[in-house]
Amino acid sequence: MAVSASFDPQLVEDDGFVYSKNTVWKRFRKHRLAMAGAIILLLMVVIAVFAAKLAPYDPNAIDNVHWQGNPLPPCFQDGGQCGGHFLGTDENGRDEVARLIFGARISLTVGVAAVAMELVIGTLLGAIAGYYGGWIDYVVMRITDVFLSIPLLPLLLTLTAIVAASSSKASLGFGVIVVIIGALSWPGVARLVRASYLSLREREYTEAAKALGNGDARIMLRHLLPNAIAPIIVQATLDVASVIVVESTLSFLGFGIQPPTASWGNMLANAESNLEVAWWAAVFPGLCILVTVLAINYIGDGLRDALDPNMR
Amino acid sequence: MRRTLQAVPLLILISLILFVILHSAPGGGLGPYLQNPHITAADIARLKHNLGYDKPIPVQYVLWLGRVVQGDFGYSMSNSEPVFNAIVERLPATLELMVSSFAIAFLIGVGAGLFAAVRPYSMWDYFITTGAFFGQSMPVFWFALMMQLAFAVHGIPLPGGYQISLPSAGISSSDTFDLGDRAVHLILPAIVLALLQVALYSRFMRSSMLEVIRTDYMRTAWAKGLNFRTVLFKHGLKNALIPLVTVTALNLPGLFGGAIVTETIFAWPGEGRLFFNALGQQDIALMMGYLVFNAFLVVFFNLFADVAYAWLDPRVKYD
Asked: What's chain A look like in SS3?
């Protein structure tokens, strides 16, 4: 434990390996695919934030001038009459590009919000279990076992189906999806945090913090959390990717974001029945999901290498 | 033995939590009847009383558990048959799909992972690792749509004017059993369900093999002058495969999720589609049966994987 005169609060120590934010960034930059992923994600975030400014049309507006019942093809399709819609329209005559842009907003917000919720619950439960041990640890870990044993997708579908049936309006709110996903995906984080805390609580500095009269909550948050943060960051990043896939799957199956709100998943739900006439409606939303998820997964991979060189 | 005994309370806790979640829905288990205009409020009240839905949830749970122990999972209102029968009927179709996708995934995944590990940081390694990343990031339902678009809707053109055009829905074209026909129907859904597993197995196989290659016994085998293949397959592969037992068990929940999507898109008459149809009709008894059945399989296979691991690798000991 390096308590020197020139103590740098940004300096994080883990298993004797000292690194600062600077060296992490240096290592991350060397991971070319992770950097590419970061740039793509940044682009997606900009698109999502400025969706209203960037979208060429209203995502829910029907083009009554050009659309005559059949989805309009993209402009680059031979002999296609796209009517000014670069990637064509869906079966209701709504602009694909505009819907994709607004879909980015949904995917990224759900991903980040659900993971934020998962992190709060998972970190809290994992920290309490690991720090106190004993019967508290036992109870928390058994609950974790329960949620890791029930397959996640069927459970999510069950909950959204029940909520949809019990709410007077047949539509599922955006917040409901976030809460349901966040409330069910914390066990992974809880296990991770618990494992770190189990070993960290035996360290000398924990002892020292206790001797100085710090309360349990303060020790857990100010002393242990910074030392357990690296694997949590990696896990959270990868979880954003998997939440985006889960949300789009729920929406595709009709139990997620409800139309007319555009999400990449529910755009594909309609595309399935029009597969024979409108390939573009099936290809582009999925491509958006794939590129975004791939970008985030590579960022997670890069972060793992950068934060913990021993894990490679 | 101790671990086996621990599984029992875990299963009871799982079923309790699921029961509370499912039965807190308004209408309890009477969803489909509530939507039927021919059933009066008096009928509903009588049904509620006869089926025990008017009792408090803890009491209902104990009664449910008592019946389940006797093999009675309740009555599926969307299928008009007992839940147990509905689940057993769909089992062969789901097994056919899962086992074939697992076989595809295991062969390709292990092969690719092994290949990548033998030539680490070569062009092939990068190709396989990148492929695994793509497979891992691909939404299953979109991959299914793309496969349908390529092979069922348009038909991939081959040299010589041939086209691959596959049926994209259902388990067979006719009622009589025809192996070739079955296989043609199986291939797309099996590949779709296999994709995620291929990505998983190739990644784990690669890292597991890389670890084994560095071990002393491998160096000894090479030093003895054994040929490359013998060392790799007899000494290396055998040991590198052991961790995949755990990976397979841990992936089971994901596989069930994937099966719901795949079976729904390809109209495959298995458990996943059964469950998906039950969702829309609020068939609580069937949803409960399906979830408990799958959770049981997950717990059982995790236990089995632990035992198998210790048996395959005697260095591992459980208390």
From this structure: CCCCCCCCCCCEEECCEEECHHHHHHHHHHCHHHHHHHHHHHHHHHHHHCHHHHCCCCCCCECCCCCCCCCCCCCCCCCCCCCCCCCCECCCCEEHHHHHHHHHHHHHHHHHHHHHHHHHHHHHHHHHHHHHCHHHHHHHHHHHHHHHHCCHHHHHHHHHHHHHHHCCCCCCCHHHHHHHHHHHCCHHHHHHHHHHHHHHCCCHHHHHHHHCCCCHHHHHHHHHHHHHHHHHHHHHHHHHHHHHHHHHHHHHHCCCCCCCCCCHHHHHHHHHHCCCCCHHHHHHHHHHHHHHHHHHHHHHHHHHHHHCHHHC
CB contact under 8 A, A149 and B302: yes
Q: Is the Cβ of A233 closer than 8 Å to some Cβ of chain B?
A: no
SS (H, E, C) B115-133: HHHHCCCCHHHHHHHHHHH
3-class secondary structure, B79: coil
Q: Report the run of H or E that residue B210 belongs to, with start and end.
A: helix B179-213
Beta strands in B203-282 (DSSP E): none
Contacts of B139 in chain A (CB under 8 A): 245, 248-249, 252, 286, 289-290, 293
A126 pLDDT higher than 50: yes
Q: Is A168 on the interface with B (CB under 8 A)?
A: no
Q: Per residue in A27-71, pLDDT tens?
A: 888 888 999 999 999 999 999 999 988 888 888 878 877 777 778
Q: Is B262 on the interface with A (CB under 8 A)?
A: no
Phi, psi of A219 (to 5 degrees): -60, -45
- Which residue from B minimizes the CA distance to A279? B149
- Chain A residues 119-158 within an 8 A CB cutoff of chain B: 142-143, 145-146, 148-155, 157-158
Q: Is A286 on the interface with B (CB under 8 A)?
A: yes
Q: Could you check whether the bond before residue A260 is cis, i.e. omega within 30 degrees of 0? A: yes
Evaluate whether A138 touches A194 at the Cβ level (below 8 Å). no
A297 and B25 in contact by Cβ < 8 A?
Answer: no
User: For A74-81, which contacts have Cβ atoms below 8 Å and span 24 or more sequence positions?
Assistant: A74/A280, A77/A280
**What confidence score (pLDDT) does residue A1 get?**
37
Say which of B133, B149, B287 has its CB closest to residue A282. B149
What is the per-residue pLDDT for A9?
Answer: 42
Q: Residues of A with CB below 8 A from B141's CB?
A: 248-249, 252-253, 268
Contact B137 A161 (CB under 8 A): no
